[in-house]
Design a protein that fits this description.
Blueprint: E1 10-15, H1 25-33, H2 40-52, H3 59-76, E2 83-87, H4 94-103, E3 108-113, H5 120-137, E4 143-146, H6 154-169, E5 179-185, H7 189-195, H8 202-221, E6 226-232, H9 247-256, E7 261-265, H10 274-290, E8 294-297, H11 305-322
Helix pairs in contact: 3-11, 4-5, 6-8, 6-11, 9-10
The structure holds coproporphyrin III and fe (ii) ion (FE2).
Binding site for Fe-coproporphyrin III: 57, 126
Organism: Leucobacter luti
Keywords: Cytoplasm, Heme biosynthesis, Iron, Lyase, Metal-binding, Porphyrin biosynthesis
């Protein structure tokens, strides 16, 4: 049987974007932090992280690699679906990509947002961004659908599991006895609360992944698995509460409790972009070394075959549903598949704050 992705005629990979050169850094950071109240000194500090890498974030090449991997997987399955790429905060901007796609005849575009978990930052903000791109294209805009969050897609889990076991194998004595330090991006407590209003919140989605991965690791190793979830990359006003513990404080506390080896597993990110390359590989690794802990950083899912195949499964499942079929949504863990359309009031920046900003894939309020 030949598979097809109808009614879709393109897949848009929609991501964060990052600077490609020194001169891009400040304008990129202005785009990201526009209206967000991030203090100047935090911006200067984050600018320094990028300058350590000559102003070039690895994120763009990683997204291009994911585009290529998705194209390969689709082609191998005999599915004709062009994959295009657009960003929220840097070139190529989503609006430009969609204008081009439309010029080439795309009428209905399925969007894969590069955030695995739902919160304002990973979900609603992208839905606002896509609505604004569509509005500015007017009649030329294709119809856009958005794939649900994929944190509990089995391929995402399998890819993380493989990455953790590979990293664990590099530790002295292997993974046995290592504490698994799962890490994700911190968000303000208010954003966390707002993410939990209409369904399982951002933290709960990660906890679900942690439980599933721990169980799989236990099965693989035949031993006990100790783990915890911690957070990196907090910003904003220091007086505003964000999700804790910070990964560095947490590693310090683990050392004080007698832990001697850890795997740092960045389950909150899909590629080794700047948060991973600096906040984990530089800062968290330094913290571990200072405290006498042997640490191995697990890779992100990147373009691992399990992950890419799982994404294509999700694409085909969604396409089938849009054709009126009733495909089953396969998920791991206890939370089930998130809905295709976000519920009213979900994933606001703050609970109860109605901004009136239009969104796609869900009601505006
Ligand atoms: C949950 C989440 C993800 C994970 C989901 C996902 O993967 O999408 C994520 C990803 C990313 N965040 C990124 C970069 C930045 N995020 C910032 C600021 C913020 N992030 C937030 C949350 C998240 N962010 C929040 C609540 C803020 C505060 C301001 C605001 O409410 O928006 C700032 C401003 C400076 C600072 O304050 O640090 C920068 C530069 C990059 C690109 C990296 C690269 O260039 O390689 C990526 C992939
Ligand atoms: Fe961020």
């Amino acid at each position: 049987m030949t598979e097809n992705a109808l009614p879709y005629d393109a897949l848009l990979l929609c991501s964060f974007g990052g600077p490609n050169a020194t001169d891009d850094v400040i304008p990129f950071l202005r785009n990201v932090t526009h209206g967000k109240g991030i203090p100047e000194d935090r911006l200067a500090e984050v600018g320094e992280h990028y300058h350590r890498f000559d102003g070039k974030s690895p994120i763009n090449e990683q997204n291009l690699a994911l585009v290529a991997a998705l194209q390969r997987e689709l082609k191998n399955r005999g599915i004709a679906l062009p994959v295009v790429w657009g960003n929220r905060n840097w070139h190529p901007y989503t609006v430009d990509t969609l204008r081009d796609s439309s010029a080439f005849g795309a009428k209905r575009v399925l969007t894969l947002v590069t955030s695995a978990y739902a919160s304002y930052s990973g979900s609603r903000q992208y839905r606002e961004h896509l609505a604004s791109a569509v509005a500015s294209l007017g009649e030329d805009a294709p119809h856009i659908d958005i794939l649900r969050p994929f944190f509990n897609e089995p391929g995402f889990i399998a890819a993380n599991l493989a990455a953790i076991t590979e990293a664990g194998a590099t530790l002295p004595g292997g993974i046995a006895g290592a504490h698994i330090v799962y890490v994700t991006h911190s968000i303000p407590d208010a954003m966390q609360d707002a993410s939990a209003v209409t369904g399982p919140g951002y933290r709960e989605q990660h906890e679900d992944v942690r439980v599933v991965l721990d169980a799989a690791l236990r099965e693989l190793t035949g031993g006990e698995v100790a783990s915890s979830l911690s957070y990196c990359s907090r910003s904003g006003n220091p007086n505003t509460p964000w999700l804790e513990p910070d990964v560095n404080d947490h590693i310090e506390a683990l050392a004080a409790a007698g832990v001697t080896k850890i795997v740092i597993a960045p389950i909150g990110f899909i590629s080794d972009h700047m948060e991973v390359a600096f906040d984990l590989d530089v800062e968290a690794m330094e913290t571990a070394t200072e405290h006498g802990i042997a640490a191995a950083r697990a890779g992100t899912v990147g373009v691992r075959t399990e992950f890419v195949a799982g994404l294509v499964d999700m694409i085909m499942e969604r396409a089938a549903r849009e054709r009126g079929e009733d495909p089953s949504a396969v998920t791991t863990g206890a939370l089930g598949a998130f809905p295709d359309e976000a519920p009213a009031g979900s994933c606001r920046m703050r609970h109860g704050e109605v901004t009136g900003i239009p969104v796609l894939a869900g009601p505006h309020d």
